[in-house]
Amino acid sequence: MGILAILILFPLIIALILLAVKKDSARGPIVIVSGIVIGAASIFFAVTNFSGSVKDLWLSGSEVDFGIFSAGGGNAAEILSYVMMVIEAALAVLIIVLGIRHRKYLASILAAAQAIALLWFELAKGHEIKTANYIYIDNFSLIMVLIIGVIGSMICIYAVGYMKDFAHHHEGEPDRRPLFFFLMFLFLAAMFGIVVSNNLIWMYFFWEVTTLCSFFLIGYTRTPEAINNSFRALIMNLLGGCAFVAAIILMGLHPYIESFELSQVLATGVSLHEQGVDEPVFNAIIGLLAFAGITKAAQMPFNSWLLGAMVAPTPVSALLHSSTMVKAGVFLIVKLSPALGIQGLFHIGPGFMVILVGSVTFLFASLAALSQSNAKRVLAYSTVANLGLITACAGIGTAEAVWCAVMLIIFHAVTKSLLFLCVGTAEHNIGSRDIEDMDGLFGRMPRLATFMIVGIAGMFLAPFGMLISKWAALQAFVDTGNIWALLAVVFGSAVTLFYWTKWLGKLSAIVANRQDIEQGVRKEEWAVTGCLTALTIVVAITFPFFSNGLVVPYLGAAFSSVAEKTFVVLQTDNMIIMMIMVVLIIVLALLLYGRTGKRLLPLYMSGVNEGDDLTYLGSMQKDVPVSLRNWYFEDMFPEKSMNRIGLIVTCAVFALVFSYMISSMVGLYDYFVQTGGAA
Amino acid sequence: MFNFYGDDISAFQIISLILYVVLAPFAGGLIAGIDRKVTARMQGRVGPPVLQPFYDVGKLLQKEAVTVGRGAQDFYVMCCLIFMIIAGAFFFFGFNLLMVVFTLTTASIFLVVAGYSSNSPYAQIGAERELLQMMSYEPMVLLTAVGLFMVNGSFNVENIIGNEVFSLKFLPGIFIGYLFIITIKLRKSPFDLSMSHHAHQELVKGLTTEFSGKTLAALEISHWYENIFLLGFIFLFFANGTWYMAVIGIAAVVVCYFLEILIDNGYARMKWQFTLKSAWIMTLIFGGANIFVLYYLRGYLWLAA
Amino acid sequence: MASYITKSPWIIHYDGSSCNGCDIEVLACLTPMYDVERFGIINTGNPKHADIFLVTGSVNEQNIPVVKQIYDQMPNPKVVVAIGICATSGGIFRECYNIVGGVDQVVPVDVFVPGCAARPEAIIDGVVKGLGVLAEKQAALAKGVRDAEVPGAYKYEEAAEETAEAAAEEIAEEAPEAAAEKAAEERKEEEAV
B203 lies in a domain? Predict the structure, then answer.
């Protein structure tokens, strides 16, 4: 069976076990041990399949014995496909029933439509199409396996401690933790499935499973708000699912492709691209798949589902934002990147759509984040924005831009999970997730604040990873003349600077007389956040090795036109200098921070400081507490308008691109009919 | 001279790097002194001696060491100084312009966090205004680097200076945009929101309120370093590898700085909304339009480069 | 090492209970007519940057802690200059129920500049005199001697109460001859300036 089967099946089995285990004392060890096993297995899998050079594992025939997945046991794989189809149908029925029960008929309609379409197609035509390779693994898949296996399982371990507190805070409500952990592990299994599938019908199956998992996790608390938001997420992701199904059907009908294999699609795309041909039906397939990716990656106008997902317990948010769900969306878009077609500032096609949606999302999500004081919402908008940047990079479709996209995925996964988990811990200990309440967290929870500061610095500051990727992205936008994306990045990163720094400032403020309240934090939470902090720093220091060892070989394989040796994103000396700067900051912090031999003075408050730095003598001879608040630009950049503008622009782009695609497809049809008639 | 990861490093680069690190504070201080003198003359005053900024910093270094909180701000200001020197060092060494910009941003962020870390009301409002100023000028600074890249085919300062193209010819819009935002960067009226150097204002001394003695001196020196390479950007628009354009470039730097002093004295401080809106609009109109034109010209330009 | 402090004296100006006459004269010093920036003088408005503390007007019950705090927040070496007759002795407000007296009642004053209002020339003269004191203090600081701390710093309320009691007692007990003595003392001080 190989380790791959372990990656998918093991989490699934653990999920089922956790569904059955009701006892708190048993659940903790199971989650921790299996989390460690999954993490270790994914590292082992990545290391054994990665030899430093281009390595594609076609799981076919005699080359690698993967049991039922190999072509030798092709029947088994086909049987598996039928099993999936049955499960899919069952899931569709489940959604339809739930939709009707909660009067969300749109969800029912969408689920019914795509299930019927797919079942009809598979039974009518699909079974004639043979799949040679159900599974395809390259370095990018390995990177994703690492992210899901390591970060995903860390989040699950963190959730053990967190959910104990969560149950404590929500006493009197039914304890649904078995379901919770079942869904978390199922999520991991489905994610592994997405990143290794080559057969798009399999990928679609795993895709729908993640949609459903996120639906149940968002609705975990079953409050009216949670149910509402979970249905919003469901409907938007089902829209993407419909596009996915449409793409699969078109693929089956397409004269050159006639296959469900992603590798086949990409190969066709690359060859079309090299010939400079714009083929309408093929463009439509890619456009639909990209659309599915865009919905899952919570790009505008679909960003509201990810914002709504904040009602779920924090580990869910961390999982959705960092290693699963949205990463599945960008995974697909990045995969499609070489096949996105001819590029041009005004050339309407899938690439045009992806770039514009990504860059518009980056800019307006960043602007929307300006007015947020809820830490989780800031993180959510920042996720949406960063995914926008990844999407835009993938849309450009040059090797350099895809390098940025992949590096962004890595850095973002590590840093964002760290930040979410830190906010979760802070929330349980200070009783608020508002940034304004994190005033002087450095005094109350020094270790946690340090972790958060590392995370925030990792998100936007030179010389940490995200910024390096942004830099390379800027360069890629300039090189390819994508001025829209360039302007969006230039303004968006200025805004990014603002909302991160003001949070950083709040955390680092030294407020007098703060009690250290860190003792209450659970051990699992410390272990995980500590590991992630270390990982953030390690990744920032060692990223040239990631780049040269994993990403560049992948690009060499994905972009046949790129000769590996001449491919230079950032000159190595620049990367080395960045590494030295990271080390310099750490050394400076260790040497200088908090050591002062200077005489300490109270703050200047116009001479009326009461001496404790916390109160001043007011005009009525009364003590007034000092309260400092941040700047939120509600008048200039209101959240609602930013979302609305993003929605209008992206919808216009979709309308333009898809109407253009349909009309060109119709034109093509007419052409065939006419030439057929003439002949 | 020797090789560093595939890049040849010339003696010229090393000399200019050393000259920058050693001389920039003197040049920066002198410029600040001349600035004050010229300002005074514009206002019909005699003004302080030209060496006054050095006296100020000398005095600050001699004052008693006091600080607030647990002295966290001193760490951040020290980081700000170090990264400012590094940013300028990259510039004069001829490195990637984007790296210069990002390192400069990091240095500025350290300054802002220094303001926040004191938890003082005046310092925090100053820090936020500083942040607002950063948000206002950052897009244009990046576009300047991009424009110079599009014309010269390289982000490396070394190549931009060495390239035979007279960049200003293709970058008039970007040049105007840069002059506009450098007013913010040089902390001139009407944009001196965060730490006014003019007679005291509603924020006392804004961001710097809680800094004193050596910390304030370090900040002052970091401004000197910063100003030198910000003016160096102007030089890049003129340099094309010939000596006479280098002379013209330096003359242009002088003229532009004089212009900044004139603007400083000609305007009262405006509201923050004006800073943000005007800077972004200028960036879009002049920077954005220039970039679009360049996009259509770039086939021609890249042949030239 | 040369001392730069006399070449770059930065000022903070505080208005005690002045009639604003002296304040206007202080600001007049900054105008082109008098241009104190010639001497490197800058009005910072921030005790943490300042070397010289200019106080105009007499000190009253409510601003005792304020004056003390501003003084205390200035890093050493520092000099206090009392501007105008009110700041030196209380002036015509001296007998008011709320007035404590000159600034020297609260913080140690180095230079007294009398006048009502003090002329800009006199103010500049006073500040320049203060520079001499500043240089001495700088030299002392180099040897490790710091300005005497104000006793009871940060216990402003207690200090204020004590001073208020003392003032009340003084008013109650002050015999005519004591008042004459005090006036003579003040004259002496003014002559000293």
Answer: yes
